[in-house]
Every structure is written in C-alpha cells, then in structure tokens.
Amino acid sequence: MKNVTRSEILDTAKEYVTKDRAAQHGDMESNLTMIANLWSVFLETKIEPHQVGVCMTLLKIARIKSTPENADHWEDSCGYMACGGEPIAKKPSKGISVPTYTDMPFGQNSADPVGYVAPDMSERLT
Predict the structure, then answer these.
(1) How far is residue 20's CA from residue 99's CA, in Å, rounded to a whole number?
(2) How many contiguous H segments (helices) and E segments (strands) does the chain have?
(3) What's the CA gap between 38 and 22, in Å, rounded?
(4) Of 4, 63, 103, 122, which residue is least crowded by CB atoms under 10 Å?
C-alpha cells in the first residue's frame, strides 16, 4: 500500500458511499434491508439492516488479516460502517440496556457478555 494517511482513507470511503451508486447497485437502505432479510432466513435469526454494515466490515477485517497492505479493505470497511450507521441513526433511540455482572449467567462477566471461552493457545506459542 502506498503511503496513505487516515484522512485519505476516509476521503476515499466518503467518495464511494456518497456518490450516486444507486444506478449501479440500487438504493443503499433497500439493499441493506434485502440483505438483512436474506441473511435472517438463512441464519434463522433476525438480522437488522445496520448489522449488515457491521458484518460486511468484519469481512473486510478478516481480509486485512491476510493482506493488510490492500487499501481497498481499509476504505471499504469505513464505507460499510457509514452505510450501517445511517439507517440506525434514523431510528428513534430506544435506550440501550446493558446487563450488569449480576444479571449474567454463571461463567460470564461484563468483559465477556456472550460467555465465549477462548481456546487454550499456549501449546501453539511454545
């Protein structure tokens, strides 16, 4: 990747997500909703349109692991977050309920709200 600044990455992402791409890809919100609906059926769990932006960003993060020098990954991840953030910003705020340590099932804590236990990697480090 050429010597690029964070401002240039954001400018490129902004150019991608603010120019009229509807002619090529269709309306952004409609696309996010359609993708969310398709993923919901396939995954058998409700996916919201803003979560599509998050998941697509995670795809780009996974690609960064393989080829961090590819500027496209960095630019696209910024763009996906912006696209996912727009529809959620339009919704009225419901307030967020954050579980406390005592609200969580045994074995969980506030740093690990889903109860994920990482595999023991010590053997691989030696």
Answers:
(1) 41
(2) 6, 0
(3) 20
(4) 122
With CA atoms as reference, report the closest residue to 101 among 109, 112, 93, 90: 109
pTM of the model: 0.68
Rounded distance between C-alpha atoms, residue 104 and residue 70, angstroms: 40
How many structural domains are present in the chain? 1
> For residue 64, is it within any domain?
yes
Report pLDDT digits (tens) over 7-42.
999 999 998 888 877 777 888 899 999 999 999 999
Give dist(CA 13, CA 15) in Å, integer: 5
DSSP code of residue 9: H
Q: Can you give the residue range of the structural domain that contains 57?
A: 6-93
66 inside domain: yes
Could you tell me if residue 18 is inside a domain?
yes
